[in-house]
Design goal:
Layout (H helix, E strand, L loop, with lengths): L11 E5 L4 H12 L3 E6 L2 H9 L5 E5 L8 H11 L5 E4 L14 H29 L2 E6 L12 H21 L4 E8 L5 H9 L1 H9 L9 H12 L10 E4 L8
Parallel strand pairs: 1-2, 1-4, 2-3, 4-5, 5-6, 6-7
């Protein structure tokens, strides 16, 4: 395969929630492949520390994904000072873990606002810029909870399932212009907090690994590789899909 088809040289990417975990893993991979990356989040110090790992190709902007009124200004500032966006990765989100009967309507609504409505708002603003240019890639980070039932995450699961509907509809409407919209559903991905939880609950760790055909947890880098592929020209005829990156967990028995 022509290695040039996998490059992101010359591309400019915006990654929300890019200061840690999956977002930072994607940002690192994009920079490795030649992209200029802008990461956003609410904590300037954390963003600054993350950006130092990205070198000269990394930039950050303090921004709250829930502040819809600022989306247009954020995109305008990036495009004026850095350049036209080629890639948007909607990674920032909100979690809520508790039994469904104990989840309030306010908590449910807040998760949907962060994980679905805000993503629609930012994506819509981005599409208004990408579509006239005839190119672009939007990647939505969904979840394995959108593929099968997981207990105690009713709001999160609902939002991430809705995100797949948003992905498919936007792809159906907008792909004719040259803009592709896809999703990734990460499985159990390593982080400091996740690994600490697993060490305190070895029975749960064993259950997870037993139904994961590849027999290991994923890493942020695994998601970064998948997101790089979907953003590259190697995926030029792929739109509207949800790519599970879970070591086979979603099909494991």
């Amino acid at each position: 395969m022509d290695s040039q088809i996998n490059t992101l040289v010359g591309k400019i990417a915006l990654i929300t929630g890019g200061s840690r975990g999956i977002g930072l893993g994607i940002a690192k991979r994009y920079v490795q492949l030649g992209a200029t990356v802008v990461i956003t989040g609410r904590d300037g110090n954390t963003l600054d520390q993350a950006c130092q790992q990205l070198g000269g190709s990394g930039h950050f902007r303090v921004a709250d994904i829930n502040d819809h009124a600022e989306h247009a200004a954020l995109l305008e500032e990036i495009e004026v000072n850095i350049g036209p966006l080629d890639i948007l990765v909607n990674n920032a989100g909100q979690h809520c873990k508790k039994p469904a009967v104990d989840t309030t309507e306010e908590e449910f609504r807040a998760v949907l606002e962060a994980n679905l409505v805000s993503i629609f708002s930012l994506s819509r603003q981005c599409l208004q810029r990408m579509m006239p240019r005839g190119q672009g890639s939007i990647i939505n980070i969904s979840s394995m909870s959108a593929l099968f039932g997981l207990p105690q995450v009713v709001a999160y699961s609902s939002s991430k399932t809705g995100l797949l509907g948003l992905t498919r509809t936007l792809a159906s409407e907008c792909s004719v212009t040259g803009v592709r919209i896809n999703a990734i559903a990460p499985g159990f991905i390593e982080s400091k907090m996740f690994l600490e939880i697993m060490e305190k609950d070895p029975a749960r760790k064993e259950r997870i690994l037993a139904r994961t055909p590849m027999g290991r947890f994923g890493t942020p880098e695994d998601i970064g590789h998948a997101a790089a592929f979907l953003a590259s020209d190697a995926a030029s005829f792929i739109t509207g899909v949800c790519l599970p990156v879970d070591g086979g967990n979603s099909i494991g028995f």
